[in-house]
Amino acid sequence: MIAPPPRWVRRAVLAPLVVVLAVVMVPTTLMFALVVGAALTWVLPGRLRVVRVLWMAAFYIVWDAAALLALLGLWIASGFGLAARQPWYRRAHVRLARGMLAVFFWQVRWTLRLRIDVEVGAGTLPDVPLVVISRHAGPGDSFILVDRLLDLAGRAPAVVLKDTLQWDPAIDVLLHRLPSAFVTPVSRRPAGRPGARQTVHRIAEHLTADDALVLFPEGGNVTPRRRTARIDALRAAGQHDLARRAAEMGNVMAPHTGGFSAAMEGSPGAAVLVVAHTGLERLVTLKDIWRELPMDKVITLGGWIHPPGTLPADDVGRAAWLFDQWEVVDTWIAERTPAPAP
After folding, report:
1. If you ran DSSP here, which 8-state letter would residue 253 be given?
2. Mind giving me the DSSP string for 128-180?
3. CA–CA separation, 207 vs 213, rounded Å?
4. Are 157 and 180 in contact (CB under 8 A)?
5. How many CA atoms, within 13 angstroms, populate the side-chain half-sphere of residue 98?
6. Which of 8, 32, 123, 336 is 20 to 30 Å from the Cα of 250, by its Cα?
7. Kindly report the CA angle at 121 between 120 and 123, in degrees rounded to 5?
8. In sequence order, what are the beta bridge partners of 120?
9. 79 burial class (0-12, 13-18, 19+ CB within 10 angstroms)?
10. If you count DSSP H runs as helices and E runs as strands, how many of each does the chain have, helices first?
């Protein structure tokens, strides 16, 4: 993806542009959806795909613009940023994130007909910092996970994401005000800028019992090319046992272990929540999403708690432990994936 522009461009150009789009383009888009879209949809496969896509696009612009205006209001209320380090300022942003995600998923359920079921494993969340490791599959799974953490667990999420997500102004502004970070890939990272491992360690050091650091060790959606490349990389590094185990997992991709190990080094007293989910695996490309509209899907979310002090204390042990968990996730997904039709 294209690298995001400098911060001043994102604040002075992209953010106002979204608000202007919400005011000017949305009525036009809705009219197009109702008149032209409805007239064309009968020629295309699926049920009202054009209308649904245009409606969700219009809704997302309004949703993003509303979030930006609320964030602007909080910044003004803080004395134009002078009170940005006060506890109430952070709590207000967590409440805003919870409310905005609730509205977003209400619309997703209504327009795309998605349902999210949560299977809670044994154990309750201890009153310590939380490190969440989740598989990465399908569009919006990070939104779903953050929503569940805010709603069910009452935790403020600290998320480490690719820097390209800064193209979205609301996500850009909100996450820069929470203990989260955007990581630039090595291929275009300026010299001296910290990488993913250093960034994760820095955030983990400041986690409290009200926080949850969210990591996606696979680094992206599972594709055959990425899966094969990851196995080849493990073999090239001499990690033949991990490569063999990765090749035997058919539903997940071999996890990168560096970020997880850095999180545990930064917050050794943290509990770990392993998250598995299924329901969006087939949605990798825009073509996949178009084909499946309306989705009519059930997303099942499961998780297991590992209390503090139960994990290995060295990098090699943590890597093996992480692969152990990914094998459990792989089995969990296989048990909930319907057999292909004959």
Report:
1. -
2. S-EEEEE---STTHHHHHHHHIIIII-PEEEEEEEGGGGGSHHHHHHHHTTT-
3. 8
4. yes
5. 16
6. 123
7. 110
8. 303
9. exposed
10. 13, 7
What is the dihedral sign for C-alpha 233, 234, 236, 240? negative
Cα angle 277, 281, 287; round to 5: 145
Closest CA to 59 of 126, 120, 111: 111
- Return the H-helix or E-strand segment holding 70: helix 49-77
| Residues 6+ positions from 170 with CB-CB distance below 8 Å | 18, 63, 64, 67, 68, 71, 100
3-class state of residue 313 by DSSP: coil
54 neighbors 18 (Cβ within 8 angstroms): no
Determine the 3-state secondary structure of 267 from DSSP: coil
Extract the tokens encoding 334: 């296989």
Place of tokens 């994130």: 97
- Give how far Cα 299 sits from Cα of 32, 136, 140, 334, Å: 31, 13, 11, 14
How far is the C-alpha of 62 from the C-alpha of 23, rounded, in Å?
8
Residue 97 tokens, joined: 């994130």
Q: Are 194 and 106 in contact (CB under 8 A)?
A: no
HSE (side-chain half, CA atoms, 13 Å) at 263: 33
pLDDT score, position 59: 84
Q: What is the gyration radius of the CA atoms in the chain, in angstroms? A: 21
> Which residues in the chain show pLDDT less than 50?
38, 41-45, 122, 341-342
Q: Give me the sign of the Cα torsion angle 57, 58, 63, 64.
A: positive
Question: 303: closest CA among 153, 113, 161, 91?
Answer: 153
